[in-house]
Amino acid sequence: MFTLLLDPIAFTLGPLTVHWYGITLGLAALAGLLIAVQEGKRFGLSPDFFLDLMLYGVPSSIIVARLYYVGFKWGYYKDHPGEIIQIWNGGIAIYGALIGALLCGFFYIRAKGFDFWRIVDICAPSLLIGQMIGRWGNFINQEAYGGEVERSFLSDTLHIPSFIVNQMNVQGVYHHPTFLYESLWSLLGLVILFIIRRRNFLRAGELFFCYIIWYSIGRFFIEALRTDSLAFKGPQWLVDLLSALWSPMKGLFEQGYLNPDEGNIRISQFLALMIIVGGIIIVVVRRQSGAAKEKYNDPLINHKKKEAVIAPPKETESIEDDAEKENHDRPV
């Protein structure tokens, strides 16, 4: 019988057990914070603004993500209530985490006097890098993997490193490393966001919609490979529609097993499709209606103070100004 190659427990301190899953989530949050702080400097926002947002947002996203997952698995958790809080064993739904983060962010951002769309634009790459890193917690836990594959497919066809291939051997059977597919898709999306956020065509809110549309495109196809999808029972026409949209992947991949007792439609796949369509519609409507007047690179306005936030001068500019002042004051 094959056992975990990686111990999910990082270390213990007396009665305290620290799991790699929690460390991974912590690193994901830290990376997101650093990226937001760096971009926020361009708009005159202090690091404390994003630190406070993270301190409120991370617990909110984890709680809602867990409630989202438990809600759809209530048939199990109602008989095992003690496991509801055991997030270190996995079971966090990413769309639930996004809902929790956005709900918390909406009230925090409004309380600070800023436009919601302007701030979530700045935070969009942070959310994506958080998902990119956080997926490696699934790798350590040997969870959220896809259907069965041959080892040769992973090592010879996809050329995946052996340490990942070995960890995808679950009880003697190799599986798709869907965590890796999603992590790489997020990395590519992160590069795209970094590029387009410097383009002047981008309006307020559109970087965030680019993020959720990009992520959802990848999630739509990757979710179909998984064997642990949350599901619901829907009409046959919807099942056929989702299958038809996924069909371009059939040449390389086969869909993972979906327990018919839980449903015939994967919830995350259905939500991904709704987000893609809805996101595109919202961007078009906001542009045509004039709701998206501000550009991403416009100065940030604090509506409470009714003034623009002024970004501090760059360090090089400050040095040059000091040198010029010194030369001006020097006696001839």
How would you describe this structure to a colleague?
The protein contains twelve helices and eight strands. By secondary structure, the chain is mainly alpha-helical. The protein has a domain of 115 residues. Helix 9 runs antiparallel to helix 11. The termini are far apart.
Question: Could you give a short description of this structure?
Answer:
The chain is built from twelve helices and eight strands. With 332 residues, the chain is mainly alpha-helical.
- Total count of helical runs of at least 4 residues: 12
Q: Specify the structural class.
A: mainly alpha
Got a strand count?
8
Main pleated-sheet profile: 2 strands, antiparallel
Q: Widest sheet: strand order?
A: 1-2
Helix fraction, binned, reads 55-70%
As residue ranges, the low-confidence spans are: 315-323
Give the overall shape, derived from the CA principal axes: globular
Task: Give, in order, the helices and strands.
Answer: EEHHHHHHHEEHHEHEHEEH
Protein name: Phosphatidylglycerol--prolipoprotein diacylglyceryl transferase
Binding site for a 1,2-diacyl-sn-glycero-3-phospho-(1'-sn-glycerol): 135
Function: Catalyzes the transfer of the diacylglyceryl group from phosphatidylglycerol to the sulfhydryl group of the N-terminal cysteine of a prolipoprotein, the first step in the formation of mature lipoproteins.
GO molecular function: phosphatidylglycerol-prolipoprotein diacylglyceryl transferase activity
